[in-house]
């Protein structure tokens, strides 16, 4: 059967499954059944999931775990975490417990400004364009009023509108640079709608302006789109404690442990190869919360890593210091997230996670997410500078191998004891199971 098909999106769900499995799988009935086995038992809920994206065939499950004991700004939280990587949830919980009796985590939102741009070409006199913009700026903003009225009632809206000359970077290239606040919404649809409205107003007003006609030049709109780089939509998280309250770690004093954490972060600040993995560890916590709350982890990842490169070199998102006997660790993250709209009310598990967190505002959720990132960073560094990162990872790796090899509960228990003192590999586990059949 040919792997090419026309009109696939017009097929029913069953027709899509039949074509996919017959075309690409050796055992079509088994492949089809595997898809159906992941359908929700509630037809209503499954229909909701089917309508989230196009050409839906089934659901793809990721584990939802929780990390308790997070004291954030003097309030206790249990964090929902959606992630496939072993030991991440346990590490977050351990970090939360470590800081629980040391004052917990502090977090604060610095600002919530988001950015959108109308990109356009203009080949005429720059001074004419600048004069036109200043004369018509208010009229362009007025053109968006039908879109911004409700957002303004919620404390958001367009904050500023500027004309940016980018012709030094690209010939004839200009942009309208627009800053927004979007209250508790992530605001992508709102921002993009406003930008398209501004683009229409820019073009229409310029076509009526005699200055443009006189020089026989016009504005050519290229595109209108929000940016996922949001360095002014910023949140900070911090932990701090006296050195003498830090317990001994595997024979290492609390002061020596804190010093190694500082040294590890200093390395991430000067060595980009290390910084990438360092920041990936932070994002283990961030992404797990982003997914659990129905936000866009790809947008967050792109913006965060751009922020880590803002100096011209990719560096650590976190910082640590020891001053006057006090150990401090902190990070800043650009987070454009929402607690209304999108999947927050449509996805049943997202709604469950939101209720677990007490239905936070977008600012409160920014703080919680930043804390999750800081906790994950602390937990990773704690392992790295003491026992090494593999100790926790390999235990979960062993579980995965045992499940892959369909070990019994009795075999799993025996294997856990055996591999405390033996090297873990697929072959080693397989050999162990062969000699321990019961």
Describe the structure using short key phrases.
10 strands; Alpha-Beta Plaits; 3-hydroxy-3-methylglutaryl-coenzyme A Reductase, Chain A, domain 2; four-stranded antiparallel sheet; alpha+beta; 438 residues; 4 domains
Gist?
With 438 residues, the protein is of the alpha+beta class. The protein contains 16 helices and ten strands.
Description:
The two termini are 46 Å apart. The chain has four domains: 42 residues, no CATH class; 200 residues, 3-hydroxy-3-methylglutaryl-coenzyme A Reductase, Chain A, domain 2 (Alpha-Beta Complex), CATH 3.90.770; 113 residues, Alpha-Beta Plaits; 44 residues, no CATH class. It is of the alpha+beta class. A hairpin with a 7-residue loop joins strand 5 and strand 6. It is globular. Helix 1 crosses helix 2 and helix 10 packs across helix 13. The strands form three sheets. The chain has a four-stranded antiparallel beta sheet with strand order 3-8-10-9. Strands 5-6-4-7 form a four-stranded antiparallel beta sheet. Strands 1-2 form a two-stranded antiparallel sheet. The protein is built from 16 helices and ten strands.
């Amino acid at each position: 059967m040919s792997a090419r098909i026309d009109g696939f999106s017009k097929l029913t769900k069953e027709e899509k499954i039949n074509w996919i499995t017959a075309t690409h799988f050796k055992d079509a009935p088994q492949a089809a059944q595997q898809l159906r086995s992941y359908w929700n038992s509630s037809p209503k809920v499954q229909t909701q999931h089917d309508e989230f994206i196009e050409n839906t065939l089934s659901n793809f499950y990721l584990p939802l775990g929780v990390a308790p004991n997070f004291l954030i700004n003097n309030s206790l939280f249990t964090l929902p975490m959606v992630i496939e990587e072993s030991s991440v949830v346990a590490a977050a919980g351990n970090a939360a417990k470590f800081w629980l009796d040391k004052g917990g985590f502090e977090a604060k939102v610095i600002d919530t400004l988001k950015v959108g741009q109308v990109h356009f070409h203009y080949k005429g006199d720059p001074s004419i364009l600048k004069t036109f913009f200043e004369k018509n700026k208010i009229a362009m903003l007025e053109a968006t009023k039908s879109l911004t009225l409700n957002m303004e009632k919620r404390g958001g809206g367009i904050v500023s509108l500027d004309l940016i000359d980018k012709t030094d970077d690209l010939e004839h290239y200009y942009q309208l640079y627009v800053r927004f606040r979007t209250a508790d919404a992530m605001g992508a649809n709102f921002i993009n709608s406003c930008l398209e409205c501004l683009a229409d107003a820019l073009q229409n007003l310029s076509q009526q302006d005699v200055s443009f006609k006189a020089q026989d030049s016009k504005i050519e709109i290229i595109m209108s789109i929000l940016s996922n780089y949001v360095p002014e939509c910023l949140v900070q998280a911090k932990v701090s404690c006296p050195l003498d309250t830090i317990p001994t770690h595997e024979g290492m004093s609390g002061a020596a442990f804190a010093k190694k954490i500082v040294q590890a972060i200093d390395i991430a600040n000067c060595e980009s190869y290390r910084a990438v993995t360092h920041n990936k560890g932070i994002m283990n916590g961030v992404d797990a919360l982003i997914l659990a709350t129905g936000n866009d982890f790809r947008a967050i990842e792109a913006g965060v890593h751009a922020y880590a490169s803002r100096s011209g070199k990719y560096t650590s998102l976190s910082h640590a210091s020891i001053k006057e006997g006090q150990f401090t660790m902190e990070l800043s993250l650009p987070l454009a997230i929402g607690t209304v709209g999108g999947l927050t009310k449509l996805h049943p598990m997202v709604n469950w996670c939101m209720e677990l967190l007490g239905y936070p505002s977008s600012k409160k959720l920014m703080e919680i997410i930043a804390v999750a990132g800081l906790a994950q960073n602390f937990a990773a560094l704690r392992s790295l500078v003491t026992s090494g990162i593999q100790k926790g990872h390999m235990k979960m790796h062993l579980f995965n191998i045992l499940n892959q090899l369909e070990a019994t509960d009795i075999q799993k228990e025996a294997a856990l004891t055996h591999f405390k003192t033996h090297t873990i590999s697929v072959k080693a586990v397989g050999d162990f199971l062969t000699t321990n059949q019961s």
